Amino acid sequence: MSYIVLARKWRPQGFDDLVGQETVVTTLKNALSGGKIAHAYLFSGPRGVGKTSSARILAKALNCEQRADSEPCGQCQNCKAITDGYAVDVLEIDGASNNSVEAVRELRETVKYAPSGGKYKIYIIDEVHMLSASAFNALLKTLEEPPPHVVFIFATTEPKKVPATILSRCQHHSFRRVTKGRIKEQLRKITDAEKITIKDAALDMIAKAADGSMRDALTLLDQAYSFSDEISEKELQSLLGLPESEIISGLTENILRGDIAQTLSIIKELTDRGSDLRQMAKELVEQFRNIAVAKITDGAAALLEFTDEEVQHLRDSARDISIEELTLLLTELLRVEAEVRTAANPRYVLELGLLRTSFVKGMTSVEQLLKMIGEPEGQHYVRESSPKTSASRDTQKSSGHSETVSRNSVAEINKPGGAASDKRPVPQPEKKTEPIQQHETDGRSAVINKEEIWQDLLAHLDATDHLLACKLAEAKLVNLTAAEMTISFNGGMSFLADLIKKNAPVIEPLLRKLSGHSIRLKVLSLPQNGVKRDLNTIKEQVAAEPIVQDAMRIFNSSLINVKPLDENANDNDVESRE
User: What phi and psi values does residue 230 have, to the nearest 5 degrees?
Assistant: First the structure.
């Protein structure tokens, strides 16, 4: 007798032999026990999970001469005929090769004849979604009102391609992917029965490579058994072209660190060994998906079907990376895997893709960038709608009303090399001893130094928001009174005027704290020595800003044009309050 491959030899012959489809099995068994037989069934699901096998088992159960409850006996003439494929009352049709309307019309002609030996005449149409639109239309009437002795069983991997008019006339059963644990359990049962020597690690690899398909797992086991009588993990990796788990783990660590040099070295080693780079890209995607699940989910062990030690190892790998960075890495790896799958030269595509992943370590989130340019999200102020005297504000404070100011925080941008950007020192203007006369309070007058307040303002602001202090230091102090501070920017730095104006709610409370008076901030944008501003000079100044340089690097962009914020505005006073 010729050799029978494991996938055929161990094909399920009864409902109890189906692996991982308990819901479908229970439904069909109950229908058979209760005599609730539908005239049309649709079995859908991934490849190799038991759809066609279930159709044959159902056909045997319907025509079994000695059926006990719902399970076919497997020994009667009808059961043996269906198992061996020569039953005249069970017709198996390939939808891909018999998809014409003529084939369906021929089928309709045979439907009217009664079964010759069994109770039912059963039509099993595999890959039914391959039928043409005309063929489906020709089948509609027969499918809706078939003779009482006819049962249709359709099988498909793509139920969305089946017309709704067909779906509505069928009892739909969805088959699921078989879990890795159930596949391994079934493989161990088969290897023990066949006396195949194989290690648990190799069974794990086969169950993982099968990707939920029991038939694929048996095919891989058959291939491995043909290669060697004693199957080990190393031999299976060599046979299937799978990268070693240590290599995937090391490559993952290098990607998480952004070490592109070591990553390229590993790819070269895999290429020299003849490993399948397409399979390696797929393994990387799965590894980073597992890391993401382990990082954000408490029940990762059940979701991933991993041990607690394996889940903890994944979490340790992701300890120093944020979920945002991990999401970017996984998104990029999915793109790389799709490109490598169809590439003529997978190595170059993979190297370029992993080079792109190294940039993630140097990226800064949009939220941090907004904070660094003085426009953070969630900044809330409680402020009076109109200017009040210091006396009225003091009255408000005593009655429980106070101003609330949320200040900016300073974030440093990580460079690709891992170093943080250095803070620029805040330019300090020369101290002058030019006093100003304050308004009288409580019948007395006091003298304060406006340059001293200016320097104190820069120092206090630098302690809380270094970047804002740097911008404010570019301004020139024009005048300071007990009611108002006036600053100005020349034409070359006028683009900072609007930024300072937006941050007036942060600066004014500091002025009040330093001077004891409610001082308004007034921002002027002056022409540059009466000469029309040179946009090239402004563009160079903007391009020299560290934040702008980091933004261009992060988004792989360039500076095209710079438009002064006050280009269409009058160069007169620009109030900080609008």
Answer: -125, 105
